[in-house]
Amino acid sequence: MDTIDWQLDKNQASTLYKQIIEKIKDKIASGEWPPGTKIPSQRSMSDMLKVNRSTINTALNELIADGLLEAAVGSGTRVANNSWSVLASSAALWTPYTHRGLQQPNLSTIQKINTYEFDDRVIRLGTGELSPEFYPKELMQDTLRSIGENITSLGYEEPLGLYPLREELCRYLARLQIAATPASLLIVSGGLQALQLISLGLLNRSSTLYLERPSYLFSLNLFQSAGIALRGLSMDNEGISPEALQAVPATASRCLYTIPCFQNPTGTTMTAKRRTELYDLCAAKRLPIIEDDVYRELWFDSPPPLPVKTLDKQGLVLYIGSFSKALSPGLRLGWITGPEPVISRLADIKNQIDYGSSSLSQWAVHRLLASGAFYHHVDSLRGKLLARRTVCLQILEQYFADIATWTVPQGGFYVWLTLKKPVSLNRLFYTALDNGLLLNPGNLYDKQASQNLRISYAYARLDDLATGLHRLAELIKTYRL
C-alpha cells in the first residue's frame, strides 16, 4: 500500500499525531488495512500528510506500543496479526482516552529497554544504575533498624520535606561552597521529579529549553509533553560550546539545562573555566540555568570542579542533586535548591501531586548524612567504579580498537562509543536483543548520533560485561547493519 487517501485537519484542536493515530485505527477497524498490510514509510507519510517525520514517528511508536502495528527489521511497519483482537478486546469507552492525555508515550526503543531491563536473560550494556552488588546491604539494614527504633510515626512531612534532612543537606551543600537554607531546599522523589516540577511550574508552551547535544533529556518526553521545545547545543571535550551558547536568542521564556559532571550520555565533565564562561554568558543574557548534578559524587581520581551554582550571586541557577545514583535507585530521593519563591512554587506543585516524598527514605538519608556513613560509602564506591571503568576500557581496547573510538570518563557511569563506520542503530538494537544484549543507542539522546552507543560499566557483572562487549563487537563486524 503506497498511498494515503486522507489528510489532516491542522485547524482541529486535536494534535496532528493523535489525528494520525485515529485515522490508522479507523483503517484497521474497518478492514481496509487487514493484518499484514505494509503501511507507507515514515518519509512517504510525511510527504503525503505534509508533516514532520517526528510527528509520524510519534504516532507510529504509540500504535506499535498498543500492539496495532509491528516493526520488523528490514521489512518496514505492518498491521499486526492480532490487531483486530486488540481493538475488539479494548475497553470501548476508555480506549480513545488513552490517546488524549497530555503526556506523550515513550519512544518505542525506550519502552523495549524498560521491559527487557527486567529480563535476566539479557546482558544490560547501557543501564544507568549501580549493580545490585554495590547495594550497601548491611549499612541500609542498620540504618533502617536505627530509624525504626526512633521514629514514632510515618505521617506527611512539611511541604518542603523533612526539616532535619534539609538541615543536613545545607551542611552537605556547604562542603560544595553552596550557601543554602532549609527554606531554599525542596526534597523531591529523585532528580527526574525536579525536572517534572520545573516543566509544570516554571515554563509554558511557548518556552524553549536549551541543553547539551547529546543529552539524556532527549530520550524523554517530559518537557515536550508540556509543549516546551528542546534545542540542542553542541559540545566539545570541555562541555557546552560557548559559541553555541552565545547564539541563543534573547527571547522571553527560555532556560538552559546542563549536566556538568560526568554528563549523560557522554561522560564529559565541564572544566572550571568553561563553567565560568557558561555562567557569565547566561548572566549577561539573563538566561536561567538548571544544573543537574546527580553524578557529582561518583568521581574517580579527583573531585570535579565546583558546581556552577557556586558562581551564582543573582539567583540564576536551580541546582539539582540526588542520592539515587550513589546509594540505590529505589530510594527515589533528591533535592533542588534555588531562590525561595521558586522553591515555594515547586513545593506547592509537588504537594498537589504526591503530598511529599517517602518519609522512610527521607529519615534513612538523614541518618546516613548525619552519621557520616554516606561519605564513607561513596569513598568505597568510587574505588569499585574506577576498577570497573578500567576493566571496561581494557575490554573495549581488546575488541573494539579497529571499529570504534570512545571517551575515557573521570567518573560517573558511562563511556560514549563512536563506531567508525555507519550502521543502522535500529537494526543493531534488535539484532543485539536477539543475541541477548540490551543496548542504549546514541540516537535516543541525539537524532544525529547515528554511530554512537552509551556503554555503562556500572551495572552488568564484569564477566557479563566482557561477554556482552565481545559479542557486540562480533555482531558489528559480522552482520550487515
TrEMBL record:
Keywords: DNA-binding, Pyridoxal phosphate, Transcription, Transcription regulation. This is GntR family transcriptional regulator, regulator for abcA and norABC. GO terms for molecular function: catalytic activity; DNA binding; DNA-binding transcription factor activity; pyridoxal phosphate binding. Residues 14-82 form the HTH gntR-type domain. The keyword Transcription regulation applies. It comes from Propionispora vibrioides. InterPro entries: Aminotransferase_I/II_large (IPR004839), HTH_trans_reg/aminotransferase (IPR051446), PyrdxlP-dep_Trfase (IPR015424), PyrdxlP-dep_Trfase_major (IPR015421), PyrdxlP-dep_Trfase_small (IPR015422), Tscrpt_reg_HTH_GntR (IPR000524), WH-like_DNA-bd_sf (IPR036388), WH_DNA-bd_sf (IPR036390). In the C-terminal section; belongs to the class-I pyridoxal-phosphate-dependent aminotransferase family. Pfam families: Aminotran_1_2 (PF00155), GntR (PF00392).
